[in-house]
Amino acid sequence: MAEYTVITSDFVNLTISNSGQQSCSVERRFQKGITIDDFKGKLELLTGGNRATMKLEVYDKNNQSVCSPDNGSRLLGSYPIDDGMRVHVTDTFIRPEEDLSKVEKFEISEEEYSKRPDTVKAFLAKNKLGKYNEEELKKREEEKKLEEVAEEALALTINVGNRCEVSVPSFPKRRATVMYVGKTDFKEGWWVGVKYDEPLGKNDGSVSGKRYFECPPKYGGFVKPAYIKIGDFPEEDYNLNEEL
């Protein structure tokens, strides 16, 4: 069997294009001492093709065909391939580019989808998971109603004008005056609107354009009834003019 040897430099810089993506090409450096079969193996990673079905065509810088490497045991460097040339990979295994907007879409009605046994919806329903677990959903609804009743009862013990101390988790305690008690448009449940003794709030008694009470900017806030403690909390004296 004839032997082939590399007689030029050890590496060659090539541009790789393929039939699956006509508009895309990449540049890579390859050892000339590898066989064509190994070269095709590297091209698999770049093109998504299969070495067993791909065909190679080498073009020079003028886009003229130079050679078609097809002997798997022959060395890459034994072919007349130089830096800057392009190797085009043609492979029926590579899926060509498609305009997905022109691909016919599979559509199914909600009723037909519900009847199919091999869908995610069918799996969840069969195993009573998520929204298909009626017992768990019923339990959550009951717990939510109890929480709402308890929150309403607590809110009704708070009156506008009450002095209070606000204790929201991760925030320091703040003294304030109750200015509003009731439901709001910005969030579900019962809320207590307060005017802080200091400018430690987030609003002026209005949220998203709706006014619930009046107070200076940065003095207003809304908190859940559970974070409100009603009591004799006099306003603290913050005398900024006092000399130390």
Automatic annotation (TrEMBL):
Q: Say yes or no: keyword NADP present.
A: no
Question: What GO terms are given for molecular function?
Answer: alpha-tubulin binding; microtubule plus-end binding
Name the Gene3D superfamilies on file.
CAP Gly-rich-like domain, Phosphatidylinositol 3-kinase Catalytic Subunit, Chain A, domain 1
| Keywords for the protein's UniProt record, in alphabetical order | Chaperone, Coiled coil, Cytoplasm
Recorded hits in SMART domains, A to Z, give: CAP_GLY (SM01052)
Give the coiled coil ranges. 132-159
Q: Name one GO biological process term.
A: cytoplasmic microtubule organization
**Main location group:** cytoplasm
Its family?
Belongs to the TBCB family.
Name of the featured protein? Tubulin-folding cofactor B
- Which organism is this entry from? Fopius arisanus
The taxonomy runs: Eukaryota, Metazoa, Ecdysozoa, Arthropoda, Hexapoda
State the encoding gene.
TBCB
